[in-house]
Protein: AraC family transcriptional regulator
Amino acid sequence: MHQSVEVLYKKVDECPIVNSQFSFFQMVYVISGNGLLHINGNAISYQAGNLMLLTPNDYHNFDIINTTEFLLVKINSEYVKEYKSKSIDHIGCLLHYATHLSGCILKRKADEFLVKSISDSLIHAIENKDIYDEDLITHYVNALIVIAARNIAKIKPTGVKESADKRILEIINYIQAHIFCPQKLKASAVAKEFDISDTYLGSYFKNHSGETIQSFISNYKIRLIEHRLRFSDMRINEIVEEFGFSDESHLNKFFKKHKDISLTGYRKSNVSQN
Structure:
């Protein structure tokens, strides 16, 4: 992929490629039709109105049941890495979280109308070439990125039940918002924030999420650090400072405990695969 952003309209009866893998992000909006998306060994149904996100190194192909119209928005990793937002921190990491998700990423009903409108506008732009097309298309794509990011941010961790009460989601949101502030992640600080006792916080969180609060914090932190190592040029000492570790040795010990490999070893092995 030579361009930072590329938008394509496709109407197909069958997928021209099988088990493909790209080095870029791809948002796939289904204008019409239905079928199955096979991704990383899973089969997920799709239909008109779905917005799906394929991340770098996902293996995927489409099994088209009824003739399908796709709007494909391809975004290279460098563009995502350099994307600037006033309110969304490290959008690349957020988008990579979609690897753990399945199917349509739209969780906000109101965003379905927005995505359809942006899709219609993008198709109009690529079919009716005019001055400043590139700038216009970039603005539309950026809007899709923000919509994707805010929907992904609202998706609950796999252990949280659909019937879970509002407070567990608020606690999870608090943890994710303060993941770079170790002092605010202490059980006493979280308990104080939500006006519950330290001991009750532990049992409450495990009962509603399926894991301990410390396990959730560590796993979330590890996932973010993995993405820094794989998809950014951040130096180890910069990651140390960002996450509030005392030094590189402390961070390396924490990472190796969870991933059984050093920070530099992980980065080298993943650079060679990408």
Summary: The two ends are 14 Å apart (CA to CA).
